[in-house]
Amino acid sequence: MILAAGRGERMRPLTDHTPKALLTAGGKRLIGYHIENLARAGIHEIIINHAHLGEQVEQALGDGDSYGVQIFYSPEREQVLETGGGIFNALPLLGVAPFIVVNADVWTDYPFTQLPINPEGLAHLVLVANPSHHPHGDFALRSGHVLSEDNEKLTFSGIGVYRPELFAACKPGKFPLAPLLRAAMETRQVTGEHYQGAWFDIGTPERLQQLDELLARY
């Protein structure tokens, strides 16, 4: 699943008329990099949620045939459901097996083949070094398990594998993902890894421009 329902307030005015996932860097749509990387990893069924200007996402990507994948959509028409609510809303499409989720507004060369198909617990998170705009991080990593509190934290990359059971007690509506993960961390049900390759959080026009200039050199 690719999360593409965010309004992109910090990206305005770029997102006033274009969904954040369809913004370009290196001559390619941000979401296109994820679709291509997932396809290379042998993942050919992709769910994309959308809200703000969501019809543009469907028009641009269609059924995924041009990428060699099948794309299904999980629209959030009445309200944006946040990360947790958005994933929960898409569970009927995601099925009963563990599934990958990636934020549309990050760029990375992370190899999705590295993710565990069958995580040990309820979730597996990819963590990265803290960027300058998020110096305090999100979670800690100790002996392969992710902890909610520790002295040295890393940043959650927006890439994870989740079991549907993580959402067993949830109800339809708007809710964040982090509290579910923190609760699972208390019982050592979240594993993780520290990825040290390329990763960019594209949250502002300035960071999008920096990524565009970087990709132009390749």
Give keywords:
two-stranded antiparallel sheet; 218 residues; alpha/beta; Spore Coat Polysaccharide Biosynthesis Protein SpsA, Chain A; 5 helices; globular; 13 strands; 24% helix
Provide a short characterization of the protein structure.
With 218 residues, the chain is an alpha/beta fold. The protein contains five helices and 13 strands. It has one domain (2-212): Spore Coat Polysaccharide Biosynthesis Protein SpsA, Chain A (Alpha-Beta Complex).
Structural overview:
- The chain is of the alpha/beta class and 218 residues long.
- It has a single domain, classed as Spore Coat Polysaccharide Biosynthesis Protein SpsA, Chain A, CATH 3.90.550.10.
- It is 24% helix and 25% strand.
- Strands 5-4-1-6-11-8-12 form a seven-stranded mixed β-sheet.
- α2 links the parallel β4 and β5.
- The longest helix has 13 residues.
- The protein is globular, with a radius of gyration of 17 Å.
